[in-house]
Amino acid sequence: MKRIVLAGAIAVAVSFGTPSFAQGPHHFQPGFNLFSKQQDVQLGEESASQVRKQMTVISDPVLTAYVNRVGKRLVASQEATESGFPFSFEVVADPSINAFALPGGHMFINTGLLRAVDSEAQLAGVMGHEMSHVILRHGTNQASKANLIQLPVALAAQMSGKNSMMGQLAQIGIGLGANSVLLKFSRNAESQADLMGSHLMSEAGYDPMEMAHFFNKLGSPGKGMAGNVAQFMSDHPNPDNRERAIEQEARVLPQQKYGYESGEFKRMKEVVARIHEPAPKPPQPPAPQSSQQ
Ligand code: ZN
């Protein structure tokens, strides 16, 4: 995936604590955060504008309607509704099997992911997983933990001045880019996103085990996707026993009728098969430096 250049964002290993054994489904709350929820939304808005400049957003009506239909079902879940975040869903032309969601709820889904899923439920699994990172505010939580000293100053300066959020954060090395602290998560965060994602799926009528099956497929060699899964696995490191954990969670969720299908999956596949991803856009030239010393 083409990423916006960022210098110096260092992902830190963050401990959220191991979820304790529970009879019922796990309940997760967002962790420590120096950003307000409104600042998550603002950061996401600014970041999304930048993503749209760097990546090719697909405006095909079938694909757009499709991901929004699946997304809306997930947004109707209890956790997503209670979060209050304004989720949105866009398709970008990129052959790698990936999707990412920015703080505040803007999600970008690669054409490569649409090609790779075997069912609507598998797509819903990845989308539910991404939405859970947003609901649990993992990106700004990690940024907060990594920048305890500088971040309060940067956020205060942003609120009192005219600087953009991204501009202000860039000064302390936070942005979107390879290994961005906002988009590359710890294994603990991944576990949480898996389990909460299974709740979202279940409420939407999708079998949570399809998320486990899809992750299993990504992790299996010999499926002909090796080159295209690297970014996903890099951004979403595989927690131990991922499938078993999802299966155990699915077992204790309230019984739901699974098997919802919008009926548009086949049509989506036909459309996405005809899309040719453009060559990656060349890197942006660096901003001109002042000649004055
Ligand atoms: Zn993840």
Bound molecules: zinc ion
Give the structural class: mainly alpha
Main sheet: which strands, in order across?
1-2-4-3
Number of helices: 13
**Largest sheet, strands/sense/barrel:** 4 strands, mixed
**What is the helical fraction, as a range of percent?**
40-55%
Instruction: Encode the helix/strand succession as letters.
Output: HEHHEEEHHHHHHHHHH
The value of Rg in angstroms is 19 Å
Q: What is the first-to-last residue Cα distance?
A: 36 Å
What does this structure look like?
Residues 1-20 and 289-293 have low confidence and may be disordered. The protein has helices spanning 37-54, 61-75, 78-83, 111-116, 120-135, 138-146, 150-160, 165-170, 187-204, 209-219, 226-235, 242-252, 265-273, and strands at 57-58, 88-92, 99-101, 106-110. 50% of the residues lie in helices and 5% in strands. The two termini are 36 Å apart. The protein is mainly alpha-helical. The chain has one domain. α2 crosses α5 (120-135). Zinc ion (ZN) binds at residues 129, 133, 185, 190, 193, 236. Zinc ion is lined by residues 129, 133, 185, 190, 193, 236.
Features:
single chain; 293 residues; mainly alpha; 4-stranded mixed sheet; disordered N terminus; disordered C terminus; binds zinc ion
Offer a quick outline of the entry.
By secondary structure, the chain is mainly α. It contains 13 helices and 4 strands. Helices cover 50% and strands 5% of the residues.
Question: Helix and strand layout, with pairings?
Answer:
Layout: H1 37-54, E1 57-58, H2 61-75, H3 78-83, E2 88-92, E3 99-101, E4 106-110, H4 111-116, H5 120-135, H6 138-146, H7 150-160, H8 165-170, H9 187-204, H10 209-219, H11 226-235, H12 242-252, H13 265-273
Parallel strand pairs: 2-4
Antiparallel strand pairs: 1-2, 3-4
Zinc ion (ZN) binds at residues 129, 133, 185, 190, 193, 236.
